[in-house]
Design brief:
Neuraminidase, 3 domains, 10-stranded antiparallel β-sheet
C-alpha cells in the first residue's frame, strides 16, 4: 500500500541521515535536531493511526541495523549530549550557538519516556498532542536544565566524543571529532576539538557562515586550518565520509571518573606526496586541564601547523605570544583559558592577524577571534605537545607540564609530566600503530597490481590475505614507501570472501583507480582517489548475478575510466564506460563462454580518438580472441567492433596480456599492431602471438613450456618498440622469469632471445615501467609473501 511504501521510504531516509548511534551524517547538531523533530512527528502520526509496530521491528534480526525507534532515541540523546553546558548548541559544523529545546518534550511524549529535559510546550505541541496531554506540561521551564548527562559520552559511528567536568552550567566541556566530514554541512575538521567552560566558548570552533561555497569567508570557516586541529601546507583534508571509512582510525579511548584519553589518526592527506599521516592524542582530567600530543609523518617534506581559536574582542583582552610561548584570554569576569605549547619541535608560535568565528544565529555575523598557530616547515615529521588550562577568575592556576621524553618521535612512545600545585601526573602516549612497507613492499598480499605515474612514483594496490582489506601505498622517487592506506574494509569479517582480480590504472593527472571483484557479493567494484574530494571513493559498477571477474581498467582519452570484465553467470565479455550519470554497461561478446582474462588498451593508431582494443579468452572454443573498435580490417563485425582469432588452442589457459608493437609499416593505420602473451593449458606453455600482416592474421609461437607461462605480462621496449618483454611464472621451480626477444615484423622472425630468472614466487605477477626502471610483483606462496621487485 502507499502507506507502507511511504513508511519504508521514511525509514530509508532515516538510515541515510542518522547513524546507529543517533549522530547525524552532516556532523552539525542543528540538523540532528531538525531531523529528529521530523521523525518524532512522523512516529506520532503512525501512533495515532495504529501503525506504530514497524518502528519496533529489528530490520536485520539482531544484525548491525537498529530498530527505527532506537535510532530515533539515540538521535535525541546525541543532540542532548552535544549541547553546551549553558544549553546552547555548540558551533560544530554548520551550527550556530542558539537554544533548541523544542525537540525534547515531544520526544518524551512519543517515545514514552521522561529521560530528556522537557521544555515548556509551544503552540505546535498543543496542536500535535491536544490540551489534555499538554496541560500538565505548562509549568515546565522554557529552557530546562540539561539534567544528568554523565562525564563522558562516545558517538563512535559519528566520530564525536564528549567529555565534561560536571552537569552544571559552568561545567567545562570538550567535544572531539574523529569521524566523517559530513557532506556539505560538515567541515574539514578531522581531529578538531572545541572547549567550552564557565558559560562561554574558550577555544572556539569557527562555526557556520553564509552558505555560499564561492565566498572566501565560507571557504575559510569550513577549512582545516580554521579549526583547532593540524593542517598540512594550509590545505584541507580529503572528504572522508561514512562511519566505517578506513581513512580515520581511533586507536584507543579510555574513560574513568577522573580522566579520559583518546588517540586517533587519519589519512586525510594521503592524496599528497609522501602520504602524510596525522595522529592526535588528547588527555583531559575532566576538570580544567588538557594535554594534547600531535604527531605527523610523511615520506616527503611538508609544512605542519596546529591552530587554536581564541576570542579576539576587547572583553577577552587576549594576550599575544608570551616569552614561554603561551597565550591566554583575560576576561575580567572570569572564564579563561591558557594555551601553553611545551614542545614545538623546532617550530614557531604565532598570533596571527585578527580573523573571526561565528557564534550568533545570523548568516553573515562575525565574532572577532585570534588564530594562534604552532608551525614547523619543510620537514618529514613533526611532534607538538600542548598544555591547555581552563580556569575561572583571572589568576592562572599553578599547572605546568614538562617533557619526560627528551627527543620525542612521531613513531615512538611519548611521556609527559603534568604538575598541579606540586603534584605530578605522568602520562604515557603510546606510538600509533601503522603498517609500513620495506623497500620491496613485502606484505601478506595476494591479488595486486602496480603502475608508475609520470613523475616516477610507483602506485601499488593489493588484497591482504590476513585482514582481507584492499590496500594501497605509493613509493616515492626516493625509494621509500608511504604509509599503507585502506581503500576498502572487508564486506564481512565472518563470511568467506576477498577482493580479487585487481586492475590498477592512473588517470591523466596521475590519480590511482582500481577495478576489482567483490568475492563476497559477486560484484564489480571501482574505487578511485577522487580529484574533487581528495579521498578514495568507491562504487558498485555491476551487480546483476555473478559479475566482474578478470577486470581490466584503462582511462579514455577524455580521462574517463573504462572496464572490461567477465560476467560469469552469463558467460559474456562486458564493458563498463563511465558517463556523466554513472557507468554505461554494454556486452562486447556473448558467443559461448567468453570474457575471461580480458586485457584492455587504447588503440595507438588513433591517438586523437578513444577507440579500444581488447584481448580475451573464448573458453568454449579454446581460443584467444582480439577485438578492436570500429571497422578495422577483414575480421568479423559485431557490436561496433571487429573480431579476430589470435590463436586456436585445444584448451585455452588465460593469463592474457595485450600490447602493441611498431610494425614499420608506412600505413598509419597499421603503424602499431597488436600482440598477446598467454598460457596454453593444453601444452602447459607460454605462448606469444602477433598480427603478422596488415589484415591481422596472427602468428603464434611457443616461448616456454613445461608448466611455464601463467600470470604472463607483455610489453615492448626500445625506441623501435619491437623488443618483446614477457614476465611469467615458472610453476615447476616457483620462480618469476623474464623473456626478451626482437620481433622482426617485416620477415616474421623473432631473434636475440634471452631468458632471465627473477625472484622466487612469480604468482599474481604484474609489471610497471618508468623511464628508469621496471617493477614487477611476485607472490611467493611457499613464504606467504607478496613483494615488489625491480629490474
Amino acid at each position: 500500500t502507499w502507506e507502507s511504501t511511504g513508511r519504508t521510504l521514511l525509514f530509508n531516509c532515516m538510515r541515510g541521515q542518522l547513524y546507529n548511534d543517533g549522530s547525524h551524517v552532516e556532523q552539525s547538531p542543528v540538523y540532528t535536531a531538525g531531523v529528529a523533530e521530523d521523525l518524532v512527528e512522523a512516529r506520532l502520526l503512525d501512533q495515532i493511526n495504529g501503525d506504530d509496530a514497524r518502528w519496533m521491528v529489528d530490520p536485520d534480526g539482531g544484525g548491525p541495523m537498529k530498530k527505527p525507534a532506537t535510532i530515533l532515541s539515540n538521535a535525541v540523546t546525541s543532540y542532548l549530549q552535544l549541547l553546551s553546558p549553558d544549553g546552547n548548541r555548540p558551533a560544530i559544523g554548520d551550527t550556530y550557538r542558539s537554544t533548541g529545546f523544542t525537540l525534547f518534550l515531544k520526544a518524551n511524549l512519543v517515545q514514552g519516556t521522561t529521560m530528556w529535559p522537557a521544555a515548556k510546550p509551544r503552540l505546535r505541541d498543543l496542536f500535535l498532542f491536544g490540551p489534555d496531554i499538554i496541560a500538565p506540561q505548562l509549568s515546565n521551564p522554557v529552557n530546562p536544565p540539561l539534567g544528568t548527562r554523565g562525564k563522558t559520552f562516545a558517538m563512535t559511528d559519528g566520530g564525536l566524543w564528549v567529555m565534561r567536568s560536571d552537569d552544571s552550567t559552568s561545567a567545562r566541556q570538550l567535544i572531539f571529532d574523529a569521524g566523517p566530514k559530513g557532506g556539505i554541512h560538515g567541515h574539514f575538521d578531522l581531529l578538531n576539538f572545541e572547549l567550552f567552560g564557565y558559560g562561554r566558548p574558550l577555544i572556539h570552533d569557527p562555526g557556520a557562515y553564509i552558505y555560499d561555497p564561492d565566498h572566501p569567508d565560507r571557504q575559510y570557516v569550513v577549512s582545516t586550518r580554521a579549526h583547532n586541529t593540524l593542517n598540512i601546507d594550509g590545505a584541507n583534508t580529503g572528504e572522508l565520509e561514512g562511519s566505517t571509512n578506513p581513512g580515520f582510525i581511533v586507536h584507543s579511548y579510555t574513560a574513568t571518573n577522573s580522566a579520559a584519553m583518546i588517540t586517533a589518526s587519519h589519512y586525510g592527506y594521503g592524496y599528497m606526496p609522501g602520504s602524510p599521516v596525522v595522529t592526535r592524542s588528547l588527555w583531559y582530567n575532566l576538570d580544567g586541564t588538557i594535554l594534547i600530543v600531535d604527531r605527523v609523518t610523511s615520506v616527503t617534506p611538508h609544512n605542519y601547523q596546529i591552530s587554536f581559536n581564541l576570542a579576539g574582542d576587547s572583553a577577552a583582552n587576549t594576550t599575544g605570544v608570551q616569552g614561554d610561548n603561551s597565550f591566554r584570554t583575560r576576561f575580567a569576569s572570569g572564564g579563561n583559558v591558557k594555551v601553553a605549547p611545551i614542545f614545538i619541535d623546532g617550530g614557531t608560535v604565532a598570533r596571527n592577524a585578527l580573523t573571526f568565528v561565528t557564534n550568533a544565529a545570523d548568516g553573515d555575523f562575525k565574532d572577532d577571534a585570534y588564530r594562534f598557530t604552532v608551525t614547523k616547515n619543510n620537514s618529514t615529521t613533526a611532534v607538538f605537545v600542548t598544555l591547555i588550562t581552563a580556569y575561572n577568575g583571572t589568576t592562572v592556576p599553578n599547572i605546568t607540564a614538562s617533557m619526560l621524553t627528551g627527543s620525542p618521535s612521531p613513531t615512538g612512545t611519548i611521556q609527559v609530566r603534568v604538575t598541579t600545585n606540586g603534584s605530578n601526573t605522568d602520562l604515557t602516549f603510546p606510538a600509533p600503530t601503522f603498517t609500513t612497507l620495506n623497500s620491496n613492499a613485502q606484505s601478506a598480499g595476494t591479488y595486486n597490481d602496480v603502475a608508475y605515474d609520470s613523475t616516477g612514483r610507483l602506485h601499488h594496490v593489493w588484497s591482504d590475505r590476513n585482514d582481507r582489506k584492499l590496500k594501497y601505498a605509493v613509493r616515492e622517487t626516493n625509494g621509500t614507501w608511504g604509509a599503507v592506506q585502506t581503500i576498502a574494509n572487508p564486506v564481512s569479517v565472518s563470511l568467506p570472501g576477498e577482493y580479487q582480480f585487481l586492475s590498477l590504472a592512473l588517470d591523466n593527472a596521475g590519480r590511482p583507480a582500481v577495478a576489482y571483484f567483490d568475492g563476497w557479493d559477486g560484484d564489480l567494484e571501482f574505487s578511485m582517489l577522487d580529484a574533487f574530494t581528495n579521498s578514495w571513493q568507491s562504487q558498485t559498477v555491476d551487480a546483476m548475478q555473478s559479475v566482474g571477474l578478470y577486470p581490466s581498467l584503462a582511462f579514455s582519452r577524455n580521462n574517463a575510466p573504462v572496464i572490461t570484465y567477465y560476467h560469469r553467470t552469463k558467460g559474456d565479455l562486458r564493458m563498463a564506460a563511465a558517463q556523466a550519470g554513472g557507468f554505461e554497461i554494454t556486452t562486447l561478446d556473448s558467443a559461448g563462454d567468453v570474457g575471461r582474462f580480458s586485457s584492455l588498451l587504447l588503440d595507438p593508431t588513433r591517438p586523437s580518438a578513444t577507440k579500444w582494443a581488447v584481448a580475451y579468452e573464448d573458453t568454449t572454443n579454446g581460443r584467444i580472441k582480439y577485438a578492436v573498435q570500429g571497422n578495422i580490417g577483414p575480421g568479423t563485425k559485431a557490436n561496433g567492433y571487429t573480431y579476430y582469432i589470435a590463436d586456436d588452442l585445444t584448451i585455452s589457459g588465460g593469463y592474457i596480456s595485450l600490447a602493441f608493437f611498431k610494425s614499420g609499416s608506412t600505413d598509419p593505420a597499421r603503424a602499431f599492431l597488436p600482440a598477446v602473451s598467454y598460457y596454453d593449458a593444453s601444452t602447459t606453455s607460454l605462448k606469444f602471438a602477433y598480427a603478422a600482416d596488415p589484415n591481422y592474421n596472427f602468428s603464434a609461437t611457443t616461448i616456454a613450456n613445461k608448466k611455464q607461462g601463467l600470470y604472463s605480462r607483455l610489453f615492448f621496449s626500445t625506441a623501435a618498440l619491437n623488443r618483446i618483454n614477457i614476465f611469467y611464472y615458472d610453476r615447476n621451480n616457483n620462480l618469476a622469469k623474464r623473456y626478451t626477444g626482437t620481433l622482426n615484423w617485416s620477415n616474421s622472425t623473432i631473434t636475440n632471445s634471452v631468458y632471465t630468472t627473477l625472484a622466487a614466487g612469480g604468482r599474481e605477477l604484474h609489471v610497471a615501467r618508468s623511464s628508469t626502471e621496471t617493477a614487477y610483483t611476485s607472490l611467493n606462496e611457499s613464504a606467504g609473501t607478496l613483494r615488489v621487485e625491480f629490474v
